[in-house]
Amino acid sequence: MAPPEISTRADYMAWMTKLLGLAAALMLAVPAAAQNGADAQENLNALREQETRVAIIGDRLAIAAADAGWCTDGHSLGWALGEVGQYPKALRFTVRRTWAVPAGANLFVAAVVPGGAAAEAGITAGSGIYSINGRTPMRNPFEMPSSHGREQSERLIDRLLAEGPLTLTIAGADGVRREVVLRPRRACKTRFLVAAEDEEQAYADGSNVLVTAGMARFTNGKDDELAAVIAHELSHNILRHVRRTEESGTPENYTRYLRRYLNISRSMEEEADRLSVWLLARAGYEARSPVHFWEHFGPDHDAAGFYGRTHDRWQDRVAAIENELTAMAAAKRRDVNARPALLDRRDVVPVPGQRPDISHPDPQPPTGQPVTGN
User: Which structural domains are found in the chain, ordered by start?
Assistant: First the structure.
């Protein structure tokens, strides 16, 4: 979506509100062009596969970072949820068939992380959820797709988890209802979602990490590279980038805001690139995978936007990542449980017009095997 003519902060915020509302309606929905017959089934099958990949990788990264004490504590339930009403009405029968959602259930488990909290409770993908601690999940009964029902159920789950484990009434494809107790695991406070968009993108908003189906397809067969993408976005949330940008202040004039934001954005993208290698290593992924990703992705995805660059050139990003990898290896030789210094920047408010140098001067080159974990 291209922005309309915007001159004030109020115009900008109104446009963003509209854009976010549209994104919420599209989230996890199959594009209109593929809503019929075999195409719809094929796209839903692919979406189910990508949701599972993203859930597994996100869960692993978030648990590892939380175990290290590197993020704000949240919980992992080892699943991704769906709600039948987040899809167009013409697709809802096919959705039920694809996930084998039992009759009478609208909230369902779209993906389960093997060995995670949901799997441990005996929950499988496609399970319908009829009640959460005795409360009926919300649903979207209207023809227009909306993720509101799922989001409301997730907020209810967050509130109830503060009181202890969840008691769910669920059913599988056989329709037989049973109660299970779901005990969360400690993880970073972030949800991992997939949007059925063809554009190869990923986003973070402070609470969620959203990966497009296009990006998931780009990394098919290369889970370490998808992990690099997700670790970068999780780093944005850990480092409080949305909140810190807000704390830097937004002038009324939109053009001045854009100039300010471009400078802040490039700095925060570098922070996320650098922290991502620590998250990957901590979770046991190949710490150099961001380098491999950018070597594949960068040459065809490096154009500046209309207002300028929000990210550095891909070659410069690789250089910063290499610098951080070398520094991390040196730090881990001194202390296997070394903590990334970048975490100290979580409360640093950006200063417009300035970009701090966060590189490591002449770190000692690594020796031995590449760092892939602790």
Answer: 17-188 (2.30.42.10), 219-345 (no CATH)
